[in-house]
Amino acid sequence: MMTDTEVSKAYRIGEGFHIELNKGGTASEIQVSGIIMATGFDLFNPTRRPELGYSHLENVITAYEMEQLLNNGNGNWEEQLGSLARVAIIKCFGSRENRPGVTIGDQDGDQSLPEFWQRRSGVSYCSRVCCLYSEKLAVALQDKIPGATLDIFCIDNQKYHPVYAAGENEGIQFIRGIPSRIYTGPGQTVVLGYEDGRSSLLTKEIYDWVVLCPAVLPGEKGRGLSEILQISRDVHGFIVSRAGFTDQEGIFAAGSCTGPQTILESLHSGRTAAENLLMSLGF
């Protein structure tokens, strides 16, 4: 196991590969029979959406930051978050945002579309894990703070009741709506403006906390390594693979570097890639 080590160069030698490594400026070399690429993913940068307040409002945080707060709260969650805290959890933050006439990253877009869609710069695909962990987080919040009320904003009803039953918990409700702006409210609160997905009316609610669930993006480390290994990537930037096989013989890929995956899917992907690598080596 070599931690904090980067691949600086790789090329075929005989039936295997020669790998040049760099660890803190110290170079080394190894030879291997096969490669499994499992470089993970990055998350959508919340500061790319200043209108949703992450860059300047202290009570707009990511799901990971809320989870860290709950894990490190030392039992003082009600004091930190409020005994009757109103919390909004926003799914699909940066995901499923492409619309006809608007390309990813296009700041102008189609003038026939609402201004809100013209300013979006997220990705078109579903990140898959947001629905699952947002409901888990909502249940955890209510467990820590029984007096809290939680609204989960979603594009549609992709819910996981059999897993966490968030939809059956009193105090947790799902709102089909697209948040468009978050700004300072009375006291220490924030105001969340959104378009109601059922009535199409512009609506606003006041919250103590807003939790963003950012999109899963192709990892920057994966992009660099795929160029070194000359592996193809899809239109979104993920590694193209089938049952772990890439388009380069002897090189396999596993986990979310091939696309958004749940934990179970990543585990299965890793096992499959390892099995196929071993079989390709005659084991």
Q: Would you give an account of this structure?
A:
By secondary structure, the protein is an alpha/beta fold. It folds into 2 domains: 6-40 and 218-280, FAD/NAD(P)-binding domain (3-Layer(bba) Sandwich), CATH 3.50.50.60; 43-216, FAD/NAD(P)-binding domain, CATH 3.50.50.60. Helix content is 23%, strand content 30%. The chain has a 7-stranded mixed beta sheet. It has a 3-stranded antiparallel beta sheet with strand order 1-2-3. The chain has a two-stranded parallel sheet with strand order 4-14. α1 (63-71) runs parallel beside α4 (130-144). The two termini are 22 Å apart. 33% of the residues are buried. Mean pLDDT is 86; it is low at 100-119.
Mean pLDDT: 86
The multimeric state of the shown protein is single chain
Q: Residue ranges: pLDDT <50 for 5 or more in a row?
A: 100-119
Q: Strand-residue fraction? A: 25-35%
Q: What profile does the largest beta sheet have?
A: 7 strands, mixed
Compute the CA-based radius of gyration.
Answer: 22 Å
State the distance separating the first and last CA atoms: 22 Å
The CATH class of the largest domain turns out to be Alpha Beta
Q: Helix amount, in percent? A: 10-25%
CATH level 4 superfamily of the largest domain: FAD/NAD(P)-binding domain
Order of helices and strands: EEEEEEHHEHHEHEEEEEHEH
Query: What's the overall geometry?
Result: elongated
What structural class do you assign from the helix and strand content? alpha/beta
